[in-house]
Amino acid sequence: MQYEPIIGLEIHIQAKTKSKMFSRVSAEYWGKPPNSCVDPVSLGLPGALPVPNKKAIEHCIKLSLALGCEINQETKFDRKNYFYPDLPKGYQISQYDQPIGFEGELKLGLESDAKVIKITRVHMEEDTGKSIHMENETLLDFNKAGVPLIEVVTEPDFRNGIEIDIFAKQLRQIVRTLGVSDADMEKGQMRYELNISLRKIGEKELPNYKVEIKNIGSISVLQKVLDFEVNRQKEILVTGKAPVQETRGVRDMTGQTYSQRLKEEANDYRYFPEPDIPPFHFTDEYLEGLKNEIPELPMQRQKRYMGLGIAEDIAETIINDEIKLNYLEQVIEFTKNDKSLLERLPTVAKFIISKLSGLSEEDKFDYQISTLPAAVIIRIAELRDAGEINSNTINQILEASAATGKFSDLKSLNDYINQEGLKTNTDESQVNVVVEKVIAAEPDAKERFKKNPKVTMYFVGQAMKELRGKGDAKVLQELIEKRLQELQD
Amino acid sequence: MANGDINTIASIRDKVKSAKISYSELATEYIELAKKADTKLNLFVNSTYDEALTAAKRVDVLVEKSENSLENSSIQGIPTALKDNFNWTDTKTTASSKILDDYISPYNATVTERMLQDSAVILGKTNMDAFAHGSSTETSDYGVTYNPYGENRVSGGSSGGSAAIVAAGAAVYAIGSETAGSVRGPASWCGLYGFAPTYGRISRYGVVAMGSSLDRPGVLANSVMDCALVTDVIAGQDANDATTIPEVKTKYASNLNSEIKKQTLGIPKQFLDERIDSEVSSRILEVVKSYEKLGYKIKEIDLLDPKFSIAVYTIICRSEVSSNLARIDGIRYGHFAEEASENILDQIALNRGEGFGNEAKQRSMTGAYALSAGYYDAYYKRAQRVRTLIIEDFKRAFTEVDLIVGPTMPTVAPKVGVTKNNPLFGELADVLTEPSALAGLPCITVPVGVNSEEMPIGFQIFGPQFAEQEVLDLAYVYEQKLK
């Protein structure tokens, strides 16, 4: 029997704010001594009241909008009541029936037929403190308590770990681009919960059970958890039984899970509207203003780059590298939609991820537009595209331009190319003489070509040598192939 | 006043001036009065006489520096008391519950802070029903506070200690808080003015929470002017309380006016029916007549029966209580059980089981029940809907009348022991204050003498949201022209 996993995700993202979700104490607790970022509100002292953090709510709205969600213009906070020592108030302030965002989606990739993962809701809440269980005691650290947390919940649309991996990467790109979070998994700024069940392939209905797995700190552990759970549930299903609905925890990095709570033992959270915080009304103007603050998202940017003729893999590399994309954006800005300049961008992009990237790794280039001005890089690309310089000389030119920054204008670039004699030899008669010469030098050229047409490249190499590296490989190949073809006839 | 002179902030200022005494001497005098009254009535959970003297000495320095008497609009140097649910870093804040027996807040309530900024001389933290759960102070873990007016009578609650200390003449005014009628009730039973402005007018920050959507600090005093003046000091928007009204400074005292206005006063039929003690209702009708004689138009109105408010109030308040008390788990502060448990959740249960009194347990359990899955819609949600109806009912009424007048409490202060075998005493006694509390309306109780047993009667005035000035002015008319 073949089964497929039905998987939904809950992702908790710590929003990046100076102060906590409901008080003015610092939320930047990473690396600080335990219980040093606390105040009456985050410690849940008697009489302390929550005052919501505007910035955090705006982060939540922006993320909702970026995920294509509808926005609840009338929204509120609710109390989720349960006892735990690291939950200082005995309730978590969260959102129950009016989440800030709902019914959004995220497409896995750019293709028109790429899979779409539906987003159920995006809501705002606060983080809990941290329990550190020792042998005979439990230590509590409330630095994390009250840090703003955005929860993104998906529909059970995932069928495998690869989809989850793509989703997680894209979501992380988005929150980083929005400035909503650094989404540093090492610091627990992005955490996952899975719900997973199996059904027979071909069936349409959702299974009548689901298993929730809490607190997964990294994607690599998530993949292991997934493998473990699929196997565990499959083993139960093949015996004809159904796995029990329950909440499971992750034992360690191996991804093994263990039962925490059965469905019958599930908490009744006794949700009710938070009376300490008045409900919100987001006006159209307010939401419009936030929408306008949303920068171009990574996938949109990649699409735009591809629209400029930049290859998909090159575009993807650049959008994930802020320094490179800033440089490219300045070059794009310089073209000012001039068609002849725009056409050079695919080659410029190639330079950015190949030769310039290498120079950058050697600390010879820092992608400053002042070092390598847009006009210069475009001119180099133009020469390259016209075949006026070849791949041998291009590296020399780029290195000279980038490393020294000596070509502040086109004149100095042209002078350099002329002085060094770096231009490709395009004198047709001269090139033809060389072609004839290298073919004549090999009396069995005709037979060798007949046996293996790839021998052309050998002659191209010989011709390039004759031209002292200044030949245009493409032109040479064409001419030599044509000549060898003629010999056959 | 149960004994001695009636003192107001203005009369104290005059006394200090004419007798040429210092504020330290005044404080010493009041400390003696408070000590005596405390022995008899059980006023405080913790007295703060040393802090009071220190504050008074600072005021004397101020007076010397300014070479002048203090401003009449301030509370500088005036002896007062603070209900024990207001955080004050100088002493314990127990809310009259043993679970917080040794709890010292590391921060001040906004009200406390504003009083200290204005050099208040605070004599102590007054007794109350534990966590404000009650209308008699009988649920206090530190004993009942007696009413200065009658042997073995309760002072009311939950701000019973604050009412008793002012009525006993041992403080000029006191700070209380109400959720249903915890300012108005004890003020009425102790023959005082008790003022609770619109919900959100005075910050709740640093006040041990009972029912968050209902809680409001208030003032118990011997005059309308003092209610207005003290409110001006403690009211106003607070960045630490998201539910405060966005108005920085109120000017109720300087705007207070006893001119007769062209107003219609509404008298709700349901507040004067057979459920109300006849001596109380006949006294209130006299008050109404006297207003009529002054030229006010009187109109009988129909309001939703207050019995609905009892049900709605009980469900909403207890639900909020169940959640608000959850933070007291004995882990970070509060009572930690002697008996230790291996399991942390069991430990929390032990701490709370030992630390909370019966009333808090009862209210937490009924509140948690009302919020539980499967019951939420039938109880909490329905109660909120009816609460909306009550608010609408008042809005409709205020299209016909400017202000509403009625009795504050259905009876005078009962004898001690009243809560025995009556688990809903608190909610039932507050029947006439609950409707306006649910709507968060500004209200004041005004003393109108005593009944045949020499126990005080009070009537209340309430108005639309934010109509504090109108409410105070009408009370002022009574105080200045009809008393």
What does it look like?
- The complex is a heterodimer of chains A (489) and B (483).
- Chain A is an alpha+beta fold and 489 residues long.
- Chain A is 40% helix and 18% strand.
- Chain A is built from 17 helices and 16 strands.
- In chain A, the strands form four sheets. Chain A has a nine-stranded mixed sheet. Chain A has a three-stranded antiparallel sheet with strand order 5-4-15, with no helix packed on it.
- The mean pLDDT of chain A is 90.
- Chain B has helices at 9-18, 23-41, 49-66, 110-117, 160-167, 184-189, 224-234, 252-255, 278-294, 306-324, 344-355, 358-371, 377-400, 425-429, 434-438, 468-482; strands at 44-47, 79-83, 121-126, 173-178, 193-196, 216-221, 264-268, 297-301, 403-407, 443-450, 456-462.
- Chain B has an eleven-stranded mixed sheet with strand order 1-3-2-4-6-5-10-11-9-7-8, with helices on both faces.
- The two termini of chain B are 14 Å apart.
- The mean pLDDT of chain B is 95.
Features of the shown structure:
heterodimer; A: 489 residues; alpha+beta; nine-stranded mixed beta sheet; three-stranded antiparallel beta sheet; elongated; B: 483 residues; alpha/beta; eleven-stranded mixed beta sheet; 16 helices; 11 strands; globular
The DSSP helix count of chain B reads 16
How many strands appear in the DSSP assignment of chain B? 11
> Could you give the order of the helices and strands of chain B?
HHEHEHEHEHEEHHEHEHHHHEHHEEH
Q: What is the residue-averaged pLDDT of chain A?
A: 90
Shape of chain B: globular
Entry summary:
The complex is a heterodimer of chains A (489) and B (483). Chain A is of the alpha+beta class and 489 residues long.
Question: How are the SSEs ordered, and which strands pair?
Answer:
The complex is a heterodimer of chains A (489) and B (483).
Chain A: E1 3-14, H1 54-66, E2 70-71, E3 74-75, E4 78-81, E5 91-94, E6 101-107, E7 116-126, E8 130-133, E9 138-141, E10 148-154, H2 161-178, E11 190-200, E12 211-216, H3 219-238, E13 246-250, E14 257-262, E15 272-273, E16 280-281, H4 284-293, H5 298-307, H6 312-319, H7 322-335, H8 339-342, H9 345-353, H10 355-361, H11 374-385, H12 391-404, H13 410-420, H14 428-440, H15 445-451, H16 456-466, H17 473-488
Parallel strand pairs in A: 12-13
Antiparallel strand pairs in A: 1-10, 1-11, 2-6, 3-16, 4-5, 4-15, 6-7, 7-10, 8-9, 11-12, 13-14
Helix pairs in contact in A: 1-4, 5-6, 6-9, 7-9, 7-11, 9-10, 9-11, 11-12, 14-16, 14-17, 15-17, 16-17
Chain B: H1 9-18, H2 23-41, E1 44-47, H3 49-66, E2 79-83, H4 110-117, E3 121-126, H5 160-167, E4 173-178, H6 184-189, E5 193-196, E6 216-221, H7 224-234, H8 252-255, E7 264-268, H9 278-294, E8 297-301, H10 306-324, H11 344-355, H12 358-371, H13 377-400, E9 403-407, H14 425-429, H15 434-438, E10 443-450, E11 456-462, H16 468-482
Helix pairs in contact in B: 2-3, 7-16, 10-12, 10-13
